Every structure is written in C-alpha cells, then in structure tokens.
Amino acid sequence: MKKEAILTKTAVIVIADMHINSAVGLCPPIINLDDGGTYHASRTQRWLYSCYTDFWARVSREATGYRKILILDGDLGELDTKRRSVQLITANKSTILSTVRNVLEVASWDALYVVRGTPAHVGKSAWLEEEIGKDYDATQSQKNVHSFYQVRRTVNGKHLDIAHHAGMSGLGWGRSNSANKLISKALWDYKVDRSQPPPDIIDRAHNHIYVPAIGRDNALRCTIEAHFLPCWCGMTEYSYRAGYENVLPSIGGIVHYIEEDGGFVTKLYDYPLEKGKRLWATAL
C-alpha cells in the first residue's frame, strides 16, 4: 500500500550562483590556504557575506514552524575550468571544498537538494556539487548520486520544476518575455508532449538577474509562477567582456512558503546594489 505524504507547511528555500572560490563570489571573511597563507575577502565579498548571513537570519525567523527544504540551484562554486580569467582564490580542490562547507555552515535545512550547474564553473558532471551533496547526505536523484540536473517534486499538492539553466534575453526590455517563455514552454512540454499536469512553480538560475512572471491558462484552469533567480556574486571579468558592464546583478534568494492546503506565497529577499550611485562624478 502506497504511503500517503504527510502534509505540513513547508518553506522551499532556493539560492543559486554563489560561485564560491571566485574572487568576486561569496566567501567568508578569511580563508586559510594550504600553504599557510590567508586570503582576505574584498570589500564586495564582505558585503555579499553580510547580506548572506542576514538572509539566513531573516529566513530562520520567518520560516519558524515550517519544514525547511533548501535547494542549491547550481554554480555553488567556481573552478573556472576554461581558464577564462585569473579571478580564482585558489586551485586547491581541498581548500575549495572546505570553503564551500564553511559558507554552508550559516545555512539550515531539514532536507537538502543540490542542483548541478555549469561544467565550466563546477567541473565535469558537476563533481564539486556532487561532492558537497555527498558530504551533507543530500537527497539522491538515483542510488548513490546526491545531485540533480532537474528537481521535480510535489509539495502539498504544488508541483515544482527547478533546474539551473535557461536562456534570458540580454536586453532589459526582453527579460520579462524570457520569464513568460518559461511558462509557455512548460505548458507545451508538460501538457502537449507528456500529457502531464504542468508545474505550479518554475525556478531557473544562471543569469544572475531576478525576473518573475505569472501566467494563467484559463482553458487548463492553471496558474504558473516562474522565477529567474538572483545570485550571490559580483561582476566578473566575463560580464565585462560579454558586454554586460552596465547590468547590475541581482543579489539574494527566494523562499516559496507553501501551506498545508497548497496555498503559497513566494518572497524575494533582495539586497540591491547602489543603482542611484553617481556615475559621472569623475572628470577627465
């Protein structure tokens, strides 16, 4: 006889693109290197880390009484396997793994899911994320595999579809269309190609810019909420080279608070960069 799921209000915490070990990614104030030296976080990294600790303090307060499911949605660390820059703290794998563990000590969860990010950042087959998943006994996607390419789970009757990769328009006015495209594509992929109910919530990362969308299909009587997730990383050398020098990354994470009856609300915890900072202060 199939065991019925126990309904309890659940906070699904989704964070992505931490890029730990990048010189502009998330890291603790001091990292002890294997040669006896130390790495001191930059001003930007100290700010990111203070935002990150504040995020967990706020979530811990507001998720009191909820079962907490943490989903690390890809690009947890930075290996720069393509050697596109020198923006790495260290190439020592042991130090990288211990730094990731150090950062995760701030977090808390009842269940953990690790999503695989981009091989250029986390290695082939996302070995870095798989290793962390094993360390923390994360939920298995299959026997002895502690990471996912895609998480599809149902929480109190709500279907969640969470993965790392999805394309986003490089144009500011096209980003909302990119989020709406996630919804349209999901309706086709699930209803037409699979004859399955579509997800209620779609989360994607990779682009470092937060964009939400809500779509309703009256014929199917369903509403889908989609989110491109914020990140925990500053501007990289690649961002400048790719022509995104004027695009500010979104910093923060989201939490889906899902009640026992399936009702839910999504809360963005954001830490905006200084959009109003004077840009033309320096004269030639």
- Examine the coordinates and then state which fold CATH places here, giving the name of the CATH topology: Purple Acid Phosphatase, chain A, domain 2
Number of domains: 1
Radius of gyration: 19 Å
- In the CATH hierarchy, the architecture is 4-Layer Sandwich
Q: For the record, what CATH class applies?
A: Alpha Beta
The count of strands amounts to 12
Order of helices and strands: EEEHEHEHHEEHEEEHEE
The residue fraction in helices comes out at: 10-25%
CATH superfamily: Metallo-dependent phosphatases
Average the pLDDT over all residues and give the rounded result: 93
Are there runs of 5+ residues with pLDDT below 50, and where?
Answer: none
Query: Between the first and last Cα atoms, what is the distance in angstroms?
Result: 77 Å
Helix/strand/pairing class, anyone? alpha/beta
Q: Could you say which overall geometry the principal axes of the C-alpha atoms support?
A: globular
Strand order of the largest sheet: 5-4-1-11-12
How would a textbook summarize the main sheet?
A: 5 strands, mixed
- Helical run tally: 6
Features:
about 280 residues; alpha/beta; five-stranded mixed beta sheet; Purple Acid Phosphatase, chain A, domain 2; 6 helices; about 25% helix
Structure description:
The chain has 284 residues and is of the alpha/beta class. The protein has a single domain, classed as Purple Acid Phosphatase, chain A, domain 2, CATH 3.60.21. The strands form 3 sheets. The chain has a 5-stranded mixed beta sheet with strand order 5-4-1-11-12. A 5-stranded mixed beta sheet has the order 6-7-8-10-9, covered by helices on one side. Strands 2-3 form a two-stranded antiparallel ribbon. The termini are far apart. It has helices at residues 43-62, 93-104, 119-122, 127-135, 175-193, 237-241; strands spanning 10-15, 30-32, 38-40, 67-73, 111-115, 150-155, 158-163, 201-204, 211-217, 222-228, 252-258, 264-270. α2 links the parallel β4 (67-73) and β5 (111-115).
